Amino acid sequence: MADATGAIPRRRGWQTPLFIILRSRIGATGVLILAIFTAVALAAPLIAPYDPFQIHRLPDNSVAQLLPPSSQFWLGTTYYGRDVLSQLIFGTRVAMIVGIVSAFFITAIGTNVGLFAGYFGGWIDSLLMRITDVVFGIPFLPFAVVLVALLRPSLSNIILTISCLLWRTTARVIRAQVLSLRERPFIKAARVAGASDLRVMYVHILPNVLPMSLLYVSLGIGWAVLAEASLSFLGFGDPSMLSWGEILYQAYLTGSFRSSWWVVVPPGICIALLVASAFMIGREAETIVNPRLRDP
Amino acid sequence: MELWRYIGNRLLQTVVTLLAVVTLMWGMFRLIPGDPTTIFLGSGELPPDALAALRHSWGLDAPLYQQYLDYLRNLLTGNLGVSFYYRRPVLDVLLPMLWNTILLMGVAMVLATVIGVVVGAYLGWKRGQRIETIGSLLVLIPRSLPIFWIGIMLLMIFAYGLAWFPIGGLRTPAFIPETPLQQLPGYDLAQHMFLPVLTSVIYFLSDPLMIMRTSMLEVIEEDFIMFARARGLHERTVRKMARRNAIGPVLTYLAIMVSFAFGGQVLVEVLFSWPGMGSLMVNSVAQRDYPVAQAAFFLMAVITILLNLLIDVLYVFIDPRVHYG
Amino acid sequence: MSERTGLPPLDPADVPSESRRNILRMMGALGLGSVVAPGVLAGLDASTHAARAAVQPGAPVEPLQFWIPNWPDMIEIARQLGESWKKLGISVQVKQGTLDTWTAEIIGQHQMPHLAAMSWGGAPDRIDPDYFLTEFYNSSRLAKGGMNYGDYDDTKFDAIDNKQREEMDDKKRQQLVFEAQAMAAAANPSLVLFSRNYIQAYNNKRFDGIVPVTGSGIAMPYIPWTYYKMTAKTSRKLVKTTSIYDIHTLNPFATPEVYNSSLLRWIYPTFVIRNEQWDLTPWAAESFKVIDPTTVDVVIRDGMKFHDGKPVTVEDAKFTFDFIDKWKFPSFARVTGTVGSTEILPPRTLRFHLKQPNAPFLANVLGFTFIAPKHIWENVASASNLKTPADYPNDDAVGSGPFKLGEWKRGEYLFLKTNAEWWMAPKIDGVYWLVVPNLENQMGMMERGDADLLGWYIDRKQGDMLAKSPDLTVVSTPSHGLHEIRMHMTMAPLDDPNLRLALQQATDRQMLLDLVFGGAGVVAYNSPIMPINKFWSNPNIPNPAFSIDAARKTLEKAGYGWNANGDLLHPKG
What residue of C is the nearest CA neighbor of B29? Predict the structure, then answer.
């Protein structure tokens, strides 16, 4: 795929990354699922049958706690009498926001660190890689627990936490790529022609690592959604934002598992679908980077 | 010489990294509002001057740099300090929990890696065939599910529903074996371990599996496989050769897996009331028990970083193509 | 009424938070803090006190900041109150965090915004009215670490409160306690909501004779009368109770919190104990008598033996108080604060000379202190290198009580064996306290028969679920604990008593109780002393009836107005 100068030419038509992803069934499914979730997230107030925070009451004015699925509440109600389906729909918003914003930051930070480390080498590389090592050496969830305890549980703090820690893999991988690209003729040519370091990095190298970055954007969405669900389950989520993890956490706290599958199963399935779609896209994106993985 | 310089360099960098992690965690704990006396607030048992006296006796009102230096000095001499919450040496508190976690995590990781490698190699080998596509898709499922949800499902089905396994904990207190099966040594422990281990295995196995598969796909393209086949070697032998060569990346991944396993452990331990390091970590943060929290983090970081170092160095021996970079 | 305005004085000894800010400044200088620091600083400052800007007449009332622990019940309550108060034109901003952070900031640092909610458990030393009245409202608790974080400061209240503490005659004391409650109620320092019942369950096929204790339910260790009276129906006489907590030390002199210290009192019996009707009953003591306001005689029971066989004597009792006085253990501050000296009157009487008359002495000192074995503790400090005996691990805890230490597996369970030699030996063989930190698992274990008693509290719906099992009986016991929302009386706009009254009137307590706890509880009076505490609770100070109209009228009369949006506006001058 690389031409004589070692650059990867811009592809046209049916070879663009998006099309490569869509061409395979897996990739297409992933994109479809992601698109559906995006649509649900955007249209939430229109689709959801009820306000997710509305407490429903029975005719005798008691709270409609833990009602099984019925025609009135398609997925039943929670412990506090709220409609599960509406919570799931609005929870999509939180999942998409956390996923996309975190994935963006993870990739932005990771790619930049990888670029600088790989391109400059020397002490900058050592320093950045040691910082990456430090971040690698810290187990995510325990550290996230500490950070959220410090910053108070809120959606922005959770995104911050996830972004602060999960950029590490991206950085390492991008760095490796930059290291190999650095020696290619077209980069050397650019430098000889007098291009500044920044220009070489961002105009010449970056487009070639972009496919890899995109792969990690998509993986990042998956990691972020899982991370937020885990944090919520431990009680560090943002209770004013009903994320899917938060739904599970409240079910857990109120001891609803044993009796009410409708509060437990749907959020898990939603998380799995969203994360799986991100990983599916990631898997196909991987074939762009590593053509040997592509289906024959 | 190159090699020794590389190893020496890496060792030095490891020490610096550890120091950075330790300092970072130390700083973070000090930043969190509250201190070890916080748990005694709100009960009205301690009037404010008693609190001050307590803080003083625990050295909490010394200037911060002093506390930091004391901590470092103790750490270097292997003294992990005394737990504020338990009033005992941290090691006394940490070690039993550490064994419990290693038991659970170790068994799960070994099982997950073995299963992952075998299945991943198989899928890679059967490239392009139906079974490979289906297999790869199926693997996505456990990878996309939150680990605690897997645990919850298993609990709901096997513990709450069928009652085949206990709901949590490490053992049954005052266990009286009734049937001959129950009289087997380790029965009670095994029964309690089954669901948490199963949960962890399901969650951990997708990454080694996918890495092995990918690696296998790359190795299959290598020339030496083609030559082996041309020499007429049995397919199974060729596959074994491929596997042995493909396993490298999985080993590299192991270091990451450990770090990632520690996190997953927290959720599994909380869900199954397993008294291990994960729950100790979360609780010690809530209790502001700095020595224990710091030691737990330190331990996890040491294990992860040392494993990374070990694997990096080992890799140099395994794969001579690697730079001493 | 003297109410301070403006900022609470900065405590110069406030080293921890000062250093914290220094670290942040340093990080900021290094550029490292760019990501973390703003969040941290925002978090720190967002919860800091007094509104700095002067209140503008006629301007909209600022949103009320409400700090709650991140529990579902609190989140619900905050949400509902936000909706109720919106009808008055008041908006509420809820900040929530974990309990430890709440405690550290609100109680530890008094970084109190406008409102802070908390639920207080029904521990045994809170039965005496001194606890809530003094801790919540006395000016001596205004310092950081004290529980008067709402800044209620009234010298007249202090006078009555201090007087009730020293009144040894119950009837006279009751009048003073009633007066103190009425005085505080008039100032509306807190929105006292209700007390929730402790709903618990036990396995009726295995155990019988279950006696519920107000404030402790049937399974909690605080007033363990249930365990002394229950009988086994099957051959297994060992009881398995589930618990959210684990203890953290076996040393009764260390600084444990209520759960730990209560369990240790099973091994180290106190002089007196409350029975299921809350009457003070002689326990390690045989009898006690108030000679004069500062002198109390306690006769030690005859024939008691420590768990290692040695006899319990009055010398051991005196030793215990001398020991406490010598080492000034922080958790025994109440003892060193009240007991001046002790004197042995042979053969078995210990005479206490109090520093000043102290009414809660019988319940909260004699009901809290125990008899420690002199032959073990007198050598502890010198034998090991410990700075204080409170650091002694005490792994072979030797007491004299109805239970002996069986086994403690940290993080898993605590096993207490029955001591058959105790004068009122329990009829069971022992109790396993199983550490099960989550409620779902506890309920599952009860249903499967893996546990016999549920040692935490569940609520109505969960109770109904458990009741479906024929093996389980669900018991609902009232408690003297409370849910309350403290108001920051020195922080505008809550420094206006009319606004506080309006908030009282706009709070629908019954609705909240029904919603959050299924109605299993008792709505409170305008006092932290709950109606269930019949003798001490003043029934003449009910909370105002819920009425948004009445609340609006109160505000109108005080000069508040509303703009076109419905927002509440400050009075015009």
Answer: C20
